[in-house]
Amino acid sequence: MFYRDKLSFEDEEFKLKVGFLHFSSCSGCQVAFFDMFEEAVEILDTVELVYSNMLTKRRDLPRMDVAFVEGALCIEDPHHLHLVKELQKKAKLIVAVGGCASFGGVRRLSCGNQLPQPQHQSFVPITEVDLVKPKVKYAIPGCPPNPSLLYSFLLALLEVNEDFLLPFELMTFSTRASGMDIFAEVVNKGFCVGCGTCSTACPTRAITYNYECSRPAFNPGLCVYCGSCLAACPQSFKPYPQPTYT
Amino acid sequence: MVALNSRFLLGKYREAFLVDGKGENPVKAIFTLMLKFGLIDGLLTASEDGNSPRLILKAEDVEIPVRNTCFGVNSLLKKAVQKYRLSRLAVFGPACTFDGLNKTQYFGIGCNWTKTAVALKVSFLCPGVLTDTAFLSEVVDITGKRAGVSRFYFQKGELRYQLKNGEEVAVPPALHHRYVNSACRYCLNMAGKGTDLTAVYLKEVNRALFIVRSERGLSTLAQIQRNSPSSLQFRKAGKEDVDELLSFLKEKVLLNISDIIERVELGLPVPKWNDNKLRKFYRIWNSVDVNSEEEVF
Amino acid sequence: MKKVVKLEGIPLTEGHSGLFLEVEEGIVKRGFYYALVPVRGFETLLLGKDSRVAPTITTRICGLCQVTHAVASARAIEDAAGIEVPPEAEKLREVLGLAVRIYNNLLHQIIVSEDLFPEKREQLAFIREVQGVRKFAGTVLETVGGEIIHSPNVKVGGISEPLEESVKEKLLSEMDGVLEKLKNSFSVFRESLEALWKREGLSEDFGSHGLGYFATDLYYGNSVPFEKFTFLLPQELLEGELKRRVTNLFPLFDGKPVETGPRARAVLFKGYTPKGGVKELHLLRGEENLEALLRIREILEGGRFDGELWNRETPSSDGETVGVGVHEAPRGTNLHAVKVDKSGKIVYYKIVVPTELNFFAVGEALRGVPATKAEYVVRAYDPCIVCAAH
Q1: Which residue from A35, A114, A116 is facing C44, i.e. has the nearest CB?
Q2: Which of B73, B109, B271 sits opposite A191 (nearest CB)?
């Protein structure tokens, strides 16, 4: 067990040490954890929250079992460079939460040249940073990910439910994900069944539905590269226990 | 080893019933009754011609697709769950609709708290879906004349269309296979395994075969009967009623399997995050690790 | 003895920010508060894009008060291109803004609850109560806006999805229970705030300043001339290496630093006489929640929103006219200014967020407080650093 290596299972007192930190992002992913509402309180009670800018009084990064990281790394910001090195040292396992950390998200559009620091222009999702990449075990798509997804994910992480976690592991190897992938990976490959799940998953409504051809219709201008659509598509992966071909 | 038996083609089920509605499609009748008695608070399905998805909230508005052209049902899922905040939703569509829905429920990607929002999943036995233009070309191929399709059904293991001009034609599976949506050519779950209930349309408009798979499906039907004993007639289906479907399914599945093998031979790419779909097929093919788990969320 | 204290990373606030304090005998003589998260460049990345995508992109400036950026952005483009918005759509936007005000102010209460409750059990009980109300605000955001965070339904020209009567009734039916919960949690909050002030030995006027107030409306937002804003660069204001690290601008209104937010709204539109000090900020914010909830009820009860709410006209302007969109965000007045060219492309974009305006106010409020308590001043302003360094 990756985070329980030094502890026995009988250890009743074991509490997973969890931290939240953010690079260049809107904090929405962390807020999405609060949007589990009452369930969020349960979770705060179950795990030990060791670091969060919003909820703990720590200034330095402590050692933690799981670091939930949102946002992309700004390579012009010395603080970020320091933070990513710290993260590599202090976290046993990293989960990239949301589009910006996993696939670049809306940060893919940034081009710098804005006062007062016009040099801030290059943003790299943490799944692309080789220093921490070996520790980035899971990537969660979405802008922001659903509270219900985060809830299920946390439960799966605590129970080490491999079935659930596998696709999120695969997603760390994919640094690009946008509405275009629905076409490249599903429609173009003859896998689209026309169920409409991608259009329901799109947080910006960049994907709508073309009823005439029974295919998704993609408007790239609205896409924020969060990866929700392809992750939701029933044809992109199906590893959950489901009616199989037997 | 894969055996093209009933267990593989139709999946596990508890009971099968021949259901007669009073002058109307029994599937439509159960949804109407369920909405009327408050067993569900909404129905997510498609319009009668199957061309556009529908979210139905009132018993008098109920319509269900009777053509095999049921696309985009899940595109209204977010509206149903996040806007109308339905908590006892029924969904009716082909098996692939439930692939998307089950996935959304299991992972939670894309739509908030779908897990707890669905009360009943009903699929129809789907021979592969077609768009309007595909229907037109298929019908011209079969009959030599242009005609619209008004409904599809199964009779003695044969797929048949009722055309808009009143004619009824048999649709040979090999020909049908060339006109269906591409993804339907790789589908091995036409009977909607993983739903509570699969409905099979029959020649008589007011009759259908209900293949009930889950406890939830059975208890729902029981509740409907209790609430309105006279509106639907249930008769236990004989083995022959179910088995006559198998010949069609077997023929179609064989065609699908040969298409999948062709894909594998050509080395056509699989979707980006798919670590499983075709590999699972290999596994079955090599009779290693047969996963017979079936679960309805 | 005079010394300089620099604090980086203020716990229990959003984002990464810093404090520069000149301290004499433990008392702050001069203070600056500033953002240290990188500039993401929302003003520049929008240039050349179709103006209709602006609300979708700008809402991603902030994950706490998302809708306010979408609304300000849509209003700015409508103003620049002269697009008429159905009045019901404006009402629904107001509802969204008020819902996010409750949602966000209560999040702030959760964040500061770490300070308020020494007892963990009490803190969790308080959070549970508050989350109940936030859930309702989330429901409003989800049904009207499409999603809780980053509402996609706010479009240039209106709201893309009408609100059916049945959905509206469902929302209204929950209102009484929520109001009760909100009142309860507010009284708990008020008590524990008083206890905190006593425990920490803070005076009633702790963190007062003499700046003027700036707000445009009690609930929704009215336009202000954009020329009245000027901006100071950190390079002009600060010294040493901070010049190269501070990532926010310091805006002035009419050439003067101002405070915006719940107190400014209360002073300018409710005739409230400020007592000074930051404690009343917490309380006024709590009162705003109650008022916002009642206002949501008033709007929803007062009209039908099930018709077409979206004027789908393509935005187009001369590329010179500055369109100004103002929205009263949870933290104060949020303003977007935009120029749109003939083909509907964005040629100029500027965002002034309330936290940016409040940086001076925080700095002024720090004057005279004990250096060890400086963080309480910052927290009371509920700064949103990601907004400030958009």
Answers
A1: A114
A2: B271
Residues of A in contact with B75 (CB under 8 A): 196-197, 199-200, 208-209
DSSP state at residue C50:
B
Q: Does C343 touch chain A if contact means CB atoms closer than 8 Å?
A: no
Structure-token pair, residue A65: 């079992």
Count up the domains in chain A and report the number: 2
End-to-end CA distance of chain A: 31
End-to-end CA distance of chain B: 27
CATH number at residue C68: 1.10.645.10
B253 lies in some domain: no
Split into its structural domains, chain C has a count of 1
Domain holding B83, by residue range, is 21-123+195-235
Contact B108 A148 (CB under 8 A): yes
Please provide the size of chain B in residues. 297
What CATH number is given to the structural domain containing A205? 3.30.70.20
Domain membership of residue A219 as a residue range? 179-232
Count of CB atoms situated within 10 Å of the CB of C313 = 14
Question: Quick one: A24 and A104 in the same domain?
Answer: yes
d(CA B125, CA B58): 25
Which of A147, A171, A195 lies at the terminal end of a domain, its last residue? A171
C170 contacts B112? CB cut-off 8 A: no
- The range of the structural domain enclosing residue C24 comes to 2-388
Is C175 touching A (CB cutoff 8 A)?
no
List, for chain A, all residue ranges whose pLDDT scores fall below the cut of 50.
1-9, 243-246
User: In this complex, do C148 and A112 lie within 8 Å of one another by their Cβ atoms?
Assistant: no
Q: Which of A31, A109, A120 sits opposite C64 (nearest CB)?
A: A31
Residue type, A163: D
The nearest alpha carbon in chain C to A73 belongs to: C38
- CATH code for position A30: 3.40.50.700
**Shared-domain flag, residues A134 and A227:** no
Looking at the complex, report in whole angstroms how far the Cα of residue A244 sits from the nearest Cα belonging to chain C.
Answer: 33
3-state DSSP percent of chain C in helix, strand and coil, to 5: 50, 20, 30
Which of C147, C148, C167 minimises the CB distance to B84? C167
Does the pLDDT at position C207 exceed 80?
yes
Q: In Å, how far are A142, A170, A180, A229 from A223, measured between CA atoms?
A: 12, 22, 9, 10
B91 touches B160 (CB < 8 A): no
Chains near A, with 3+ CB pairs < 8 A?
Answer: B, C
Most A CBs within 10 Å, among C37, C47, C153, C349, to test the A interface: C37
pLDDT of residue B287: 38
How far is residue C196's CA from residue B123's CA, in Å, rounded to a whole number? 59
The answer to the question of residue B209 being in a domain is yes
Residue A97 inside a domain? The answer is: yes
Chain A: residue nearest B196 by CA?
A243
How far is the C-alpha of A66 from the C-alpha of A63, rounded, in Å? 9
Q: Does C19 touch chain A (CB under 8 A)?
A: no
Residues of chain C found within 8 Å of residue A54, distances taken between Cβ atoms: 12-14, 111
Chain-chain contact of C134 with A37 (C-beta, under 8 angstroms): yes
Q: Tokens for A129, please give them.
A: 């940073």
Residues A36/A41/A46/A51 CA torsion (nearest 10 deg):
90
- Report the pLDDT value the prediction gives residue B5, as an integer from 0 to 100: 82
Which pLDDT band holds residue B276 (cuts at 50, 70, 90)?
low
Number of structural domains, chain B?
Answer: 1
Cβ atoms C321, C140 nearer than 8 A: no
Residues A185, A144 share a domain: no
- Quote the pLDDT of residue A125: 94
**B275 band by pLDDT with thresholds 50, 70 and 90:** low
* Residues in chain B closer than 8 A to C146 (CB atoms): 78, 82-83
* Chain segment A134-185, per-residue pLDDT in tens: 999 999 999 999 999 999 999 999 888 888 898 899 889 887 888 898 998 8
